[in-house]
Amino acid sequence: MTKRPYMWLKAIVGIVVVLLLAYQYSDVRTFQKVYVVENKYEQSGHPPYSVHNFNNYKTKPNTQNNVVFKRKTDSKTFKPNPDHNCIATIPEKYITNGKQPVLIPDAQELKSLPDNAVTCLYHRYVTTLQYFCGYKERNGQIPRNGWYICADPSFVPSSKNCVVFSSNKKFNDNIFLSDIKARYNCRTFTTPLSQSDSLQSWITKNDVGNTIIDVLTLSISTYTELEVIDKMVEEKSIGKVKQLLLELHFDPSVTKKKDYIKLLTRLQMLFQAGLRIIWYDRVFQCVGVNKFSKCYAIYFVQRSLEAKEHKFKEMILPSEDEIRKLPKLELQDLYYRYLMTTQFLCKQIVRIGKVLDGGWDVCHDMMLKIDRNPCIVYSFGINHDFSFDDDMANTYNCNLHSFDPTMNKKDFKHSEKVWFYNRGIGDTYKKFGSGDIAPLDKIRKDLKHNKVPIAVMKGDTEAAEWPSTPQMLRTNQLADVSQFYLELHSDGTVPDHVILLKKMHDAGFRIFWFHTNPACTSKAKIGQLSQCMEVYFMNTKYPFNS
C-alpha cells in the first residue's frame, strides 16, 4: 500500500521529463518537402520543381515508413585540393542562389582578385543557368554545326513572322538555318556583325523594321570582336533579340587575367540588358588539356520579350496502353522530345571527371543541401576510367563504390575513398564475365548500404539500364537516391523504354540536364538524334536533410 503513491509519483515525473525533452528537441527531425507553386514562380524563370521549391519544415517522426531523418552534420564548405572545378577558388560572396548564381563584381574589384579566382569566375559563370527553359530543340547537327533553341511557349520563334540573324563565323550555319526555316518558317539572314556593321544597321539593311529578332547566332574569338556587344547594348538593339546563341572562343592556356576581365565585363553588360542564360554547351571540339574549355556555347533569352500569356506546362507522358499503341515514328518523337525536356531547375552544373566521355554533370546546388555524413556515390560502368569517381571523391569528399564486371579485375581499393567491385547492375543475380551482375537491392544489402541514402548514382551500362531500372523501381530502391544519371541506349522506338520514363516520372524523378552524345547520331526528319543520350534526373521526392 505504501509503495503505490511513490510509483504514481515516479510515473508523473517521468512523463513531465519526456514532455520537456520532446519540446526542447522538437526541431531535430526535419526534412525538405517538394511542392508545386501555381503563381509565385509563373514568370520568374522557375519550373514547378526547382531548387527554390525545397523548403524546410519541422515535422513529427515519419511513422509511416519508420524513417528517421537527422540534422545535417557536415556543414563545412567543400575544400577540394587541387580545386579542378573552381568550387573553393571563388570567394564565397560571389556564389549565390539568386538571379545570378555566380556574381560578377565591377572591373575594379575584379582587378583586386587573384588571377585564378578571376579565371574561375569566368568558367563558372558561363556554365551556370540563370533562367528556366523547359523545352529545347536541336537544329543543325549534334557534333558541331548546330544550336539549341528554347522552344518554351513564351520564347519559341514566332510562326507568323520569324526572323533569324546569323553572325557566326566559326562554323557553317547553313544546316542550322535550313532546319530552323523548316521547323518555324523563319526568314534567315547572314549578318556578320563588326565595328562598321552593327546589329541595328543590319536590321535596317534587311528591312525587318521593328520586328523582333527571334534568334541571333554570334561567335566571338577576339577581344576586338567583344566591342560588338558594347555596340548592341549602347544602341539598345540587343533588346530586340529574343534568343541570343553565343559562342565565346578563348583559349585558357593564353588568356590572361586582364582578358578574362574584359569577357566578364561584357557578360555582365548582357545580364544588365535583360539577357539570361538558360543553357550552355562545352563544345567538345574545343576541349583542351585541362578542365577549362577553349570555347563555350551560351544560350540566352531576353526576359523583356517573354510572352507572358503563354505559360510553361510540364510534359506528361500518356498512359502505358496509349504508349504501346503509338506508331514507331510518333513513339520516337515522344521519346526524344521528353529526354530534351528539363523539368527541374538546377543553376550550378559542375562537370566532374573528364570533359569528354567519362565525366558527368553534377547538380552542385543539391550537393550543398543533402546530408553528406556520409556521402555515398554508386558508379556503374567504369571501363578502366576512374576520372569521375576520383574527382567526385576529391571534390565532395564522398565514398565512391565503382562497379564493372567487364574489366577482368577482382575487387580492390582504388584509392582512399574509391572501392572497385567486379560486379555489374542487372535485374537478377547471375554470373557475368569474370564477375557477376546483381540487382540494386542485393548490392546495397551486401555492402550494408540498405539504410544509407545515395547522393549520386550513375550508370553507363550499355543497355543494362532497361532491365535493371524497372527492378529498382519495383523494389523501391530509388526512393533514397538523390541524383540519378543514366546513359540511355535506344533509338526511341521501343514502347517499354518510354514506359520506363513514365514510371520514373511517377516516382518523382525530373530531368535537370541532358547531353546528346555526338558519338552515336542518326538522321531525323529535322536535325539529328543521338542513340546514347546522357540524362540527369533529380529525385523530387527525396527527403533532403537540412
From TrEMBL:
Transmembrane segments: none annotated. It comes from the Eukaryota. Residues 333-490 form the Methyltransferase domain. It holds the Pfam family Methyltransf_22. This is Methyltransferase domain-containing protein.
